[in-house]
Amino acid sequence: MPKQLTVITYPHPILRKKSDIIDKRDLLDKSMKELLLDMEETMKKKDGAGLAAPQIGKNIRLIVISHEKKTLFLINPTITKKSWARKIEEEGCLSVVNDKGEIVYAPVSRHKRVNCVYLDEKGNKKTLAASDLLARVIQHEIDHLDGILFIDRLNDFPNKPNSSKK
Ligand SMILES: [Zn+2]
User: Fold this and answer.
1) How many A from CA of 9 to the centre of ligand 1?
2) Does the pTM of the predicted model rise above 0.85?
3) What is the pLDDT of residues 129-139, one digit of tens each?
């Protein structure tokens, strides 16, 4: 049975590390398969639109996304194309909570459409053309793999942390 994992919250240093590429052969491991299902379970239980491996304490390039009642597993995802058009929408993150443990929301500008390439859970190379909410979630989750949080992309977040990544 998949189990719910503990979600790490800001300012934990794991959230700031750049995550490692996953070796395709590792996808055959039982422990990796369990991790994928545990992350899916955690995302669902927490009612998140997506979850990145650093959020459960693993600095590897893996994200899970809930899309149209299905779960997408994206391993080593890379954005290959971004629309010039951007859109500002409210965004939140399971790892960014206030002192009551509530999720904090704020408007973030993202590319309206992105294309990305990734490996699925079986190691097959896939491409995905995403727009609107799915595009936003993909950008948010891939940021996690690079140690970037959505609060880094705001202009007026209080106590904005210094991002050392760029
Ligand atoms: Zn997040």
Assistant:
1) 9
2) yes
3) 999 999 999 99
CA 5 to chain centre: 15
Q: E strands, the chain, where?
A: 50-52, 62-67, 70-82, 86-91, 106-111, 113-119, 125-131
**How far is ligand 1, taken at its centre, from the CA of residue 94, in Å?**
6
141 has catalytic annotation: yes
Instruction: Tell how far the Cα of 68 is from the centroid of ligand 1, in angstroms.
Output: 19
Residue-wise pLDDT for 60-103, tens only, equals: 999 999 999 999 999 999 999 999 999 999 999 999 999 999 99
Q: Structural domains in the chain?
A: 13-153 (3.90.45.10)
